[in-house]
Amino acid sequence: MDVVVYFFLLGVLARLLRSDLRLPEALYETLSIYLLLAIGLKGGIELSKQPVLALAPQVLATMALGFVIPFVLFPALRFLKMNGADSASLAAHYGSVSVVTFAVGSAALTRQGIAFESHAALWVAVMEVPGLAAGILLARWATSGKESVSGTERAVSQWRTLAHDVLCGKSMVLLLGGIVIGAVAGVEGSAPIKAVFVDPFKGVLALFLLELGLVAGGRLGEIKRFGAAVLVVGLGAPPLLALAGALVGVALNLSTGGVAILATLAASASYIAAPTTMRIAVPQANAALSITAALGITFPFNIVMGIPMYIELAKFLTT
Amino acid sequence: MNKHPKKLLVIIAEAALEKQLEQDVRRLGAQGYTVYDVRGAGHTGEREGAWEADRTIEMKVVCQADVADNIARHVLQAYGQHFGLTLFFADVAVVRPEKY
Predict the structure, then answer these.
(1) Cα–Cα dist A19/A28, whole Å
(2) Gap between the Cα atoms of A77 and A70, Å rounded
């Protein structure tokens, strides 16, 4: 297991022991800003070394993957007797991606000496939004007629606000901003900031995972509240989605590491962009349910057991 | 010192509502507001404010009594069903009434 995962487990343990450990909120903010920028920069620097247009098929395929996932998950969640709003919101969490799961996945590949497309951060950036859009569409469709119908004008203005919040949200601005800065500055141009944004990356990731462990540990008690269905989703969806992601990776002719990364991204569930977006877009959905599944179950599963499995799957599919 | 009676309306809500609440109170006649990050627990569970989706805000609005009523009515109607929400009023006194 990668050393950073131990920090996550420490956080969970501290929480279960009811320790008073708590990272200041300002530090959490700072760490997340750092991680998003650093991941973007790293991808951008690699992007500067290659023709960007050649990546169009990858970009389109990863976006399509993110958009399709909620449509596949939604009927399955309905089958598990979840209501329409909850199913749509939960599906959106899985359609979108978790940047930290990506970071842990890349760290695992690097540690095992498996090469992967170093511009993979670009996939993360383009996969965040389509899943959310799909989830919102599903929610609109699933709940149409049940809520009092608001005027078209109001609906349009709400869509505009949502689009603004998602596309100009913190994670998009930092991730895409980092990619663009990295791509423009290139290897030499970004050398002066390497000491801050590249070298300490793993240490910062470890600290962030400690915090996430504290938060995820707090959700464990909620699992009982939602029963078996949330466990089935949280543990069952990631491997199946990983398989779908891996097959898309193989179709795109990615390297073994690239296939593993795409599998990891498909398996991951967003717990930053998705909860805040879906809270406003689908207020009637139970936010605690989605967060418990995404952060309480799927995230720990992916970083402890999922990622090693997805790497093996990628090896199997590419040899 | 001359003191003038006003209403203080306190709205405690999920942080996801912050932007909408700011627009709502302005639109309904409040001339200003103050927002704090808070944490706490209620009948919808505990909110620790440790990360994005778990944040709670407290918004204080000092205004005319009828404006406070209008804001409270609208907020309850628009968000009361699906969001964690606490509202209360208090009588306060201000020295510069034209500000509120």
Answers:
(1) 18
(2) 10
Q: Could you read off the pLDDT of B36-83 as tens digits, one per residue?
A: 999 999 887 788 887 888 899 999 999 999 999 999 999 999 999 999
Q: Give the predicted TM-score (pTM) of the model.
A: 0.90
A 10 A CB-CB count for A146 gives: 11
Q: What is the DSSP letter of B31?
A: S
Whether B79 contacts chain A with CB within 8 A: yes
**Is A283's Cβ below 8 Å from some Cβ in B?**
yes
**CA A114 → CA A9, A48, A110, A244, A263, distances in Å?**
25, 22, 6, 21, 15
Compute the distance between CA of residue A170 and CA of residue A168 in angstroms, rounded to an integer.
Answer: 7
B82, HSE (Cβ side, Cα atoms, 13 Å): 17
> B83: nearest CA in chain A?
A283
Q: Residue A275: which of B20, B50, B52 has the nearest Cβ? A: B52
Q: Give tens-digit pLDDT for A188-216.
A: 999 999 999 988 999 999 999 999 999 99
Per-residue burial over A163-197, b = 16 or more CB atoms within 10 Å of its CB, e = otherwise: eebbeebbbbebbbbbbebbbebeeeebeeeeeeb
A and B: number of Cβ contacts within 8 A: 39
CA A293 – CA A305 distance, rounded (Å): 16
Nearest 5°: the CA angle B14, A165, A101 is 85
